[in-house]
Amino acid sequence: MITDARALRPQFIPRDMVHRQGAIDQMVSIIDPLKWSVSSDNISIFGPSGSGKTTLAKYVLRKMERSHLDYRWGYVNCMSESSKTGALHRVLRDCRLGQDIRRAGTPASEYFERIREFDGVLVFVVDEADVLDEPELIAALADMEGVCLITICIDQDEFHASLRDQERVRSRLRAAETITLDKYSYSQLSDIIRYRVDHGLDAGRVDDEAVEYIADIAAGDARRGIAYLRRAARHVQDGSAETLTVDVVRDVADDAQANLRERRIRYLGTHKRALYDLVEAGGPDGVSAGELHQEYQKSVQNPKVRRTVRRYLDSLERYELIESYGSTSATRYKTIGSKAAEAARQT
């Protein structure tokens, strides 16, 4: 059934990215190193979850990397690494510039010096940029010669509003070229799912109706649609069905959602994971904002300030891992899709 598992993996970058040609052309024109003798532009990519923001950035950068010498790029997802030195460490290792640097105890200045020493073009992709602990890193990187910074997050207005006391950062973001992606349409998502089928599965064992059903229930979210396809393909691969049908997708849909949620939890950074675990420990009734903050302060070393914790919780909500309810003065949090949440629905 599965002919190439790579095509079913969340991090897979397709050889051809469909339905984003306009954004691809725009991005290529912005980061073309041949134009950098004059200046380099930075880019901000916005769009709903599963709209292809990260895939777009990686697709274009891999394409540019194949055709230009002295050109390197690195990626960091701030849901995993949100500290200033943590983000720098990740992108420099990705660029093959910091393999010898030990993360513990290394000041940010040493990372910046490595960047200045590189004789070539560097592109840094900062995903989920709105949860950076120190947003001034955006301005610092955006101002460096020979560096193109690509920031990615969901909502432009919310991102800028969260930086109301960071005028230098807001200024750099306003000056950046903006690429906004819309949610995929039903027909576009059907094409994306079919591409994965053609490149990763025995297409003769996949019903067209199943592809269309996946596109329908994924509701414009390519990441979710690919998760449904991956779980359904594994179901057939294991011998539980002969072909991948609508009924197979229905049978595995809940498991696919659970797998997607578990993957998101697995990649959370230390503080975000601590907050998630504390919310989950609150059970079906959840935990109040005040109780959560108190328990968080006791459970981690060097806890973040309340404002940063608030941003972390907002990001967990956007990831559909937790939800908040109640009045502003009595906000409570509970997990979504966990055993506690399931128990709450059954009572």
UniProtKB/TrEMBL annotation:
PANTHER family, A to Z: CELL DIVISION CONTROL PROTEIN 6-RELATED, ORC1-TYPE DNA REPLICATION PROTEIN
Family, per entry: Belongs to the CDC6/cdc18 family.
Example GO molecular function: ATP binding
The organism's taxonomic lineage, starting at the top: Archaea, Methanobacteriati, Methanobacteriota, Stenosarchaea group, Halobacteria
Sequence intervals crossing the membrane: none
A GO BP entry: DNA replication
Protein name (Swiss-Prot/TrEMBL): Cdc6-related protein, AAA superfamily ATPase
Organism of derivation: Halovenus aranensis
Domain AAA+ ATPase, residue spans: 39-180
One Pfam family cited in the UniProt record for this chain: Cdc6_lid
Record's keyword terms, sorted: ATP-binding, DNA replication, Nucleotide-binding
Recorded superkingdom: Archaea
InterPro entries linked: AAA+_ATPase, AAA_22, Cdc6_lid, ORC1/CDC6, P-loop_NTPase
